[in-house]
Amino acid sequence: MADGLADGPWAELLVALPLAGMLLALPLGGRQAHRLALLVLAAGPVLALLLAAQLWQGGVVGVALGGFAAPLGIALRADGLSVLMLLTTAVVLCATGLAARAGFAPRPGQGETRAGLLFWPLLLALWGALNAVFLGNDLFNLYVALELLTLAAVPLVCIEGKPEAVAAALRYLLFALLGSVLYLLGAALLYGAHGTLDITLLAARLQPGPATWMAGALMTAGLLAKTALYPLHLWLPPAHAAAPAAASAVLSALVVKASFFILLRLWFDVMPALAGLGGATLLGGLGTAAILAGSLLALRQERLKLAIAYSTMAQLGYLFLMFPLAGGGTEAQPWSAGAWTGGVLHAVSHALAKAAMFLVAGLVLQAAGHDRIRALQGLGRAMPVAVFAFGLAGLSLMGLPPSGGFVAKWLLLTAALASGQWWWAVPMLAGGLLAAGYVFRLLNPALSAGEGQGWRPVRRRWQAIPLALALLSVALGLAPLLPYLLLGLGRSPAAEEGLG
Amino acid sequence: MTSAATLYGLAGAALVGIGLYGLAVQAHVLRKILAFNLIGSGVFLVFGAVAGRGGGAGGGDPVPQAMVITGIVVALSATALAVALALRLFRETGRVTLPPDPPAGARDG
Amino acid sequence: MTALYLLDLVLVPAILLAACTAVGTRDRFAAVVSFIVYGLLLAIAWVRLGAVDVALAEAAIGAGLTGVLLLGALARMGRRADEAAAAGPPGRTLRLGAAALGAAVAAGIAAAVLALPEPAPQLSGAVAEALPALGLGNPVTGVLLAFRGYDTLLEAVVLLLALLGIWSLAPDPAWGGLPGLRHRARPEGVLAWLGRLLPPVGIVVGLYVFWVGADRPGGAFQAGTILAAVWILAVMSALVEPPAVRSLALRLALVAGPALFLAVGFAGLGLAGAFLGYPAAAGWAKPLILLVEAGLTLSIAATLALLVAGTPERAAG
Amino acid sequence: MTDALLPALVLATSLLPALVIFLLPEPAWRLRTAVNLAGAAAKLALVVVMLAGVAGGATYELRLPLVPGLDLLLRVDALALLFVTLSAFLWLLTTIYAIAYLGDGPDQSRFFGFFSLCVAATTGIALSGSLITFFVFYELLTLSTWPLVVHRGDAGSLAAGRRYLGYTLGGSAALLLGILWLESASGPVEFTAHGRLVGLDAGLLRGCFLLMVGGLGVKAALVPLHAWLPAAMVAPAPVSALLHAVAVVKAGAFGITRVVLDVFGPGLVQELGLGLPLAVAASFTILYGSLRALAQSDIKRRLAFSTVSQVSYIALGLALAGPVAAVGGLVHLVHQGLMKITLFFCAGALAETLHAHRVEELDGAGRRMPLTMLAFSIAALGMIGVPPMAGFVSKWWLGMGALQAGQPWVLAVLAGSSLLNAAYFLPLLHRAWFLPPRDAEAPAVPMFRREGDWGLVLPPVITAAAALAAGLFAAFAFSPLGWARLIIARDYGL
């Protein structure tokens, strides 16, 4: 590879390009906005791969924006974790963008419509915000990026204008705002105590003390509200269920992961030494509650999209088991940072799988006009590819091989058993069984023999989009060595040694 | 200067508390939004205290001041969106409060 | 010094009192008015803290625009009885719990504030050192447009995004049309009189605030807010109609600032070797910064005005 | 290179057809059939190549590292070949049978896609060289079987599918926990390195053994984990054949074999005192299954309970831990497969052609479908253990092994089970051959035309012949018995 490619401004472009697209889409108008958006989205995987190559060749990528080095300026930083999230984001957004044409591309002969225009700049802004989060190395900048994310995500929830979606969006907005204001408060205290918000500098300067403790607690609480960890999950299911499927896919797959990503940065990079056993155990306990409560609620839903949304709540719970399980390997283990890696892989495979599921739900709505689980007889014949994709995505949620979810769960479970904390293994296994329960409860009517009435036909190429995502989530289980090596680049030492 | 800055920092802490109380207690959406703005400005005051303690030539550390300006604009953006959502909710359903939490086993809706 | 300290001792309780009223009063209108008063008091506090830029922003945006938004919404929702009033005052348990939570959090923050280290770690030295190279006199503008320009770029997009979010709530048939309700003002009324008198003054003040921002307190956000306020007043006094949402000129005005900022940022890649960087050659940085600020002022003014105007509700005439 | 390539190819011969078939449109009957049969035949041919190779001392190994410590490892040893040969052979026949059985029914692309996937999973189970690889394919088998069980899509199938999943996924969770617990103490476990577990805490080892065998026992239908199997007989006949003979139940029994022989090793199992409890559990299952079979009047249900009973011979043989009994258990893996698949093929054909579902509907079936009933009879007699049938060989080695291991009570179990087998099979044969048909107006069609589609007749005849041959030529080196003796000799270091 030429040096020019390896040294290009890929990190900056990953933030700037989506925003440029968003700005351009507005004057361009509703007839062309979707074309522009798809063009920009298509560049995403390419840019993310170029950044990955840059990381692979030269180690952690750091960019001092404007040439002003931290602490005066703001830095972007891309380590393995960032790049993996960026890649996932680019792929999921590409797929979502393609799928969203069904609902938001202008029909021939029609003028500009509200949703047909606004969906695309909102989606691009969402993408830019996600990239800004995954690349951000400054805690205040991350606050702005989070707000950008929220303000792009909330309108997407109610862009179809349904009353229940408006209520859900408002509730989502209030939760998110409370979360970010708590986060900001923590950032203020950290600045007061250390004179910088650059993550790398903070990590080096960090002094324990009341201000730092309080900052950590406030920021964690704020990020938990945004990540919808039990018991702060109330906003998530209605919002993710009421949004149009393409938006739900992005919200469930990626948006909640952004605040989780910052939480990881905070705990593992900024203040690993301060994160005591108590805090980590508390997060693990809440994660356990989320797994169990979310799965049980998903089992009780009558509507497909609500069931999938509650499943998101449950799956997010697994991510929090990383905190108590980090480190703690034994000599019998031939790897390091098992739990941390498992958690990150879980986030990625869940992103792919959940996006696939919501896109399938979108196809179901399109074909049947409803998503009542009981009335989905004959779905397997009407859209076999989509149902297959749903099943494959389900593998990852259940944590069954072959899938990324399996490898993730395997790493987490092994970490639990190897460190003698076997009690964390119980909710993981139980959650897998419950997930099997709700996934097959959804598949059951789809495979039953009754002919569905009035299914509108859905062409195979629309069904192929969720299938591609689901296959990727499976492929992640067959070739996780690459992500594993990638994740090792620039990984925080706390991921290997544990917190506290 | 420093002691005054700390005083405003403490005021900011109190404002956050007052805002949290309002957010929890008030049912009307607009009043929730108002309470959120109180919390926000309390946080900005804490930032201001941090900046003010910094002394500096003109008036304190300019970096947190710039952050507060950014924060104020962001808070306004969020408020505007929240108000618009509240108005839309009112127009659609006649409600000025958020519907109660969705029941666990939400039925067809 | 003592007199100033006395001011603090009066101002802080007044702020807290206004806040308590805004949260506690039964009358919603009174609550919003208290909030506006609170915002103005806060602006004085910011002056006291030596942050005049922030004081301007707080007065114009925090108290002014937020207050207008809340008042407008309250007016449209009406003051008649609704389910919030029907539910009666919140239960005792809820109030006690919320009070305990609020007090605990406040106490925690207070403890943290009191425990902040002496001397305070800060960046004012670093800013002062780097500022001359940009040719700027106002360190806050330096931080906003150069050192932390990335934040400002994102923030400008956030503002625009809020507008898109509001637009996305429009009824479909009204798409492309005019935002907000039709305003009627008697031609000989006070409002119309103000509407005719204030705009020229406001525009001049706005431009001045923009222009001095490079060296003294002021800048794109404050100036944009003043210009937006002028325009809002003109609309409310029925002197002008807001532009239709589908208008290309409007859309260009909305995106001009952030787009210009991005373009200069990209140019920085070539000219300064860094995205969002300004060329090191003397005299280049300030014009570029002013250019960006000019664009931002225009876009911020347009965006803020339309934020207040609300969702498109009328088909274009 | 070929050493790594061959296992991959064997796997691909069913994985690729699965993917191709999924993509085929429903009406492409010819193409689908061709792909199916080509895959099955290619797999059998490759297996024969490997048989020759392994007999000549070659080893085949394919390693795909996923994360450090999690390798997918395919390795061909003698035990792997025993199972893969059985499944490859039976799959070819089951495919022929299934094509004839399903005729022009609906959802065939789905059916045959998952059918191939199922066999790919079984092949993977057979060839897996480490515990985690085994688990991966074991789960793939669970999941790819479910759409087959619910294939008809009626309420009964869906209920059976739910029960199947509930049991097997619960079992998998236990298995996974056992594997991970063991590996968290010992590092990754491969099936070659003996002695890796020596020195580990006995309590941990016992716990892991219990979890693993308990988890595998679900698929192996050990009582009380068996209830899914009789319920699943609502599935189409080829699926029953798959469940009972080719894949699912066998996968469980094969897993227990691997755990006893290659993970713990027979010596360690005895040392930990785990052999006797397993033997008792297996004996109980043998008798309980037979008793329940006796009470069933639905033919397929009777066969299903018979499977519950017969599969536990395998676990029994291994639990006794002497080399002779182990040979008996291993060889029964093959023998039971051959005999039970014959019985299910025949039951399916009888149900299709004569609509005979219940025991009393078999009256006179021998006259109307002589070839089918002949195959059925051979298999049934074999199950009872009449010499010189295959079943007799198994029981003989088991009995001798029990004596050698000093557990004479097992003889009583074997004898009792054989009596019960006779009690539930002989009445069927009696009705078929010696009673007149119930409906007098049996159609007057020439003898062999009455049998129905040749695709339903040929497979059971072949498997019955194979079962017979396995008994008659047991002394030959390439017979199942000869192969089982080779495996045991290597494992016990004899």
Automatic annotation (TrEMBL), chain A:
Top-level taxon in the UniProt lineage: Bacteria
GO CC annotation: endomembrane system; membrane
Keywords recorded for this protein, A-Z: Membrane, Transmembrane, Transmembrane helix
Parts of the chain that traverse the membrane: 12-29, 36-56, 81-104, 116-134, 140-158, 170-191, 211-229, 241-268, 274-299, 306-327, 347-367, 379-401, 421-443, 464-486
Topology of this chain in the membrane: Multi-pass membrane protein
Location (main, coarse): membrane
Limits of the NADH:quinone oxidoreductase/Mrp antiporter transmembrane domain: 137-427
MF GO annotations: NADH dehydrogenase (ubiquinone) activity
Compartments reported by the entry: Endomembrane system; Membrane
Keyword Cytoplasm belongs to the record: no
GO biological process: ATP synthesis coupled electron transport
Signal peptide feature range: none
UniProt key word Transmembrane helix: yes
InterPro entries: CPA3_Na-H_Antiporter_A, NADH_UbQ_OxRdtase, ND/Mrp_TM
PANTHER family: NA(+)/H(+) ANTIPORTER SUBUNIT (PTHR43373), NA(+)_H(+) ANTIPORTER SUBUNIT A (PTHR43373:SF1)
Name of this protein: NADH-quinone oxidoreductase subunit J
Organism: Roseicella aerolata
From TrEMBL, chain B:
Protein name: NADH-quinone oxidoreductase subunit K
Coiled-coil residue windows: none
Transmembrane annotation, as ranges: 6-24, 33-54, 66-87
Source organism, top-level taxon: Bacteria
Taxonomic classification: Bacteria, Pseudomonadati, Pseudomonadota, Alphaproteobacteria, Acetobacterales
Record-stated family: Belongs to the CPA3 antiporters (TC 2.A.63) subunit C family.
Listed EC numbers: 1.6.5.11
Pfam families listed in its UniProt record: Oxidored_q2 (PF00420)
One GO cellular component term: plasma membrane
Protein's cellular compartments: Cell membrane
GO molecular function, a single term: oxidoreductase activity
Keywords associated with the record: Cell membrane, Membrane, Oxidoreductase, Transmembrane, Transmembrane helix
Membrane topology type: Multi-pass membrane protein
TrEMBL record, chain C:
UniProt superkingdom: Bacteria
Membrane topology: Multi-pass membrane protein
Transmembrane segments: 6-24, 29-49, 55-75, 96-116, 152-170, 190-214, 220-240, 252-276, 288-309
InterPro entries: CPA3_antiporter_subunitB (IPR050622), MnhB (IPR007182), MrpA_C/MbhD (IPR025383)
KW Glycoprotein (keyword) present: no
Compartments in which it is found: Cell membrane
Main location as per UniProt: membrane
Domain MrpA C-terminal/MbhD: 15-79
Keyword terms of this UniProt record: Cell membrane, Membrane, Transmembrane, Transmembrane helix
Na+/H+ antiporter MnhB subunit-related protein domain span: 191-310
GO CC annotation terms, alphabetical: plasma membrane
Family that this chain belongs to: Belongs to the CPA3 antiporters (TC 2.A.63) subunit B family.
Protein name per the record: DUF4040 domain-containing protein
From TrEMBL, chain D:
This protein's UniProt keywords: Cell membrane, Membrane, Transmembrane, Transmembrane helix
InterPro entries according to UniProt: CPA3_Na-H_Antiporter_D (IPR050586), ND/Mrp_TM (IPR001750)
Chain segments annotated as transmembrane: 6-25, 37-58, 78-102, 114-138, 164-182, 203-229, 241-261, 273-291, 311-334, 374-397, 409-429, 456-478
Pfam families attached to this UniProt entry: Proton_antipo_M
Gene Ontology CC: plasma membrane
Main localization, broad class: membrane
Subcellular location: Cell membrane; Membrane
Similarity-based family: Belongs to the CPA3 antiporters (TC 2.A.63) subunit D family.
Domain NADH:quinone oxidoreductase/Mrp antiporter transmembrane: 128-417
This protein's name: Monovalent cation/H+ antiporter subunit D family protein
Membrane protein topology class: Multi-pass membrane protein
